[in-house]
Amino acid sequence: MITLYGVYRSRATRPLWALHETGMAFHLVPVLQAYRVTGANAGWTGLTTASPEFLAINPQSQIPALTDGDAVLTESLAITLYIARKSGGALGPASDLETALMEQWALFAVSSVETPALEIHYTVAEGRSTTLEGTALLAVAAEKLRRPMGRLQAWLSVHDYLVGDRFTAADINTAECIRYAQGHPTLLPEFPAVAAWLQRCQNRPSFQTMWAARDVEPA
Q: How far apart are CA 169 and CA 179, in angstroms?
């Protein structure tokens, strides 16, 4: 059985969404980011990313991580693709070309989308979006995203999903990176096909299940 290490308030949302989508049995071992053992999490007594037991699985001290028999994976996008392939269902690739396309979209998401999208997320989450500095940060991050968002807009204007005209792991990985930019007040409306696709993805029961579990975790 797959064992996933992490918490819902992390990049573990990607493989957790995939696991809920497939219905595969899995064991979740809660591992909290060490820097979060404060505030609402001050009483945390479980594993953290600094625990020796977890460092034996991922010496890089990051979540999520996955074990499946002798297999160990430590990157969220690769873990999600692994789950999709292992499930043998529609979430995974149906051909070598689809495998390459899913890998392409994962690399696109992490290299072109995630960093500026996270800049937006943290600026909004920290309450800085209305300050002079925060407004400037949002503008710079949004500009970095306009080219990749434009690429997605062109594709999603004529396709419902990213690969094979069905919902796949490619949509999970990309949507979870785009999600970080949802707090920007005007960016997504510039790309209506992307916004509609993101809403379709997030309306799925598997996302709703994952998000409900995330919501009950202490921030």
A: 15
Q: Check pLDDT > 90 for residue 129.
A: no
Letter string b/e over residues 43-59, b meaning 16 or more CB atoms within 10 A of that residue's CB: ebeebbbeeeebeebbe
Considering the chain, tell me which residue range(s) the CATH 3.40.30.10 domain(s) occupy. 2-91+207-215
Q: Global pTM?
A: 0.97
CA distances from 2 to 26, 65, 134, 207 (A): 5, 10, 41, 19
Confidence check: pLDDT of 63 > 90: yes
Q: What percent of the chain has pLDDT over 90?
A: 99
Q: In whole angstroms, how far apart are CA 217 and each of 7, 117, 127? A: 8, 23, 21
2-91+207-215 CATH fold = Glutaredoxin (3.40.30)
Q: What is the rounded CA–CA span in Å between residue 78 and residue 106?
A: 8
pLDDT tier for residue 74 given thresholds of 50, 70 and 90:
very high
- CATH of segment(s) 96-204: 1.20.1050.10
Strand pairing category for 26-29 and 2-5: parallel
For the ranges 88-97, 125-134, 173-182, 204-213, the lowest mean pLDDT is seen at 125-134
Domain with CATH 1.20.1050.10 in the chain: 96-204
